[in-house]
């Protein structure tokens, strides 16, 4: 189980004539990835998804809050002491073309991490070849065909499967899939999504799925939980199917009705909610972060910041003063 409490990250970006600009990438995010569970983070570009994924994978630091892996707080540990925990969380990159070294065969690509794993677990060197074949078969490709080949000799879908096999060499508890299907041909996307779902069942590995496309989150599993992030804040959270069927936060509704989804698999519903104003990054962060784009904004929203409810038995939580369920995608679409 991996949990995060109040995870906060602010970047300083140089380049402005007024000096460094503070960019709040994450504003006190709480999350939980249960063992073997599936969690999706969705939101538009720049909302902090990758930052959160990299923090969970131990590739990025955080300024405040805590990450707890199986009961151990990462905040109290030094860099070295954290490493064994972060082996358990492996990142699958968005771009299968740049993720693999073009000068190495797939055999070489898998052998290096497997040799390390063999040393860590006291296995013999010969185990690595056996394990490479096993992992490639597990991700649905023929080891005999793929092992001697270079990345450029494989299709995008095959490369992404190799990237997933490489992530599995470390026996992770959780795979962080950051836009893992966005650069793959549409016809091959469902295959990769089903593979991730299948790995959950067969290996009990948890999946943390990062996407700007709410519909792909559906294909990770019926029991998955969805986190909708807007400008670094989780604005709605709950069971994926419930949120897609009845989103209560206006931002979630606008994401669903804008529908940049797996083309042909989802259709917009009756009630479309279109943001009324483009995002103004220069605005101070008083009040609701979504206020300038929200069609339902009131005086209160301008001055007070809504916070996400903390459980209390509620499965669907939101950070909005005026939540109202609206159906923006017909239930069952694309199934
Ligand atoms: N290394 C960095 N230095 C400075 N600012 C950064 C850095 N990484 C991210 N940011 C900023 O933090 C914010 C969140 O970025 P992040 O990459 O997490 O967003 P994202 O949701 O993954 O976006 P996308 O959908 O485009 O991948 C953005 O405003 C981005 O410009
Ligand atoms: S709090 Fe107000 S501005 Fe923010 S999303 Fe809800 S209705 Fe819109
Ligand atoms: Mg990103």
Write a compact overview of the structure shown.
This protein is of the alpha/beta class. It contains eleven helices and eleven strands.
Tag the structure with descriptive keywords.
ABC_transporter-like_CS, binds adenosine-5'-triphosphate, ABC transporter ATP-binding protein, alpha/beta, 335 residues, 7-stranded mixed sheet, 11 helices, binds iron/sulfur cluster, ABC_transporter-like_ATP-bd, 4-stranded antiparallel sheet, binds magnesium ion, transport
Shape: globular
Taking all residues together, what is the mean pLDDT? 86
Gyration radius, rounded = 21 Å
Which sheet architecture does the biggest sheet show? 7 strands, mixed
Beta-strand share of residues: 15-25%
Run of helices and strands: EEEHEEHEHHHHHEHEEEHHHE
Bound molecules: adenosine-5'-triphosphate, iron/sulfur cluster, magnesium ion
Number of strand segments: 11
Strand arrangement, largest sheet? 6-7-8-3-9-10-11
Can you give the helix content as a percent range?
25-40%
InterPro entries: AAA+_ATPase, ABC_transporter-like_ATP-bd, ABC_transporter-like_CS, Oligopep_ABC_C, P-loop_NTPase
Keywords: ATP-binding, Nucleotide-binding, Transport
Protein name: ABC transporter ATP-binding protein
Organism: Microbispora oryzae
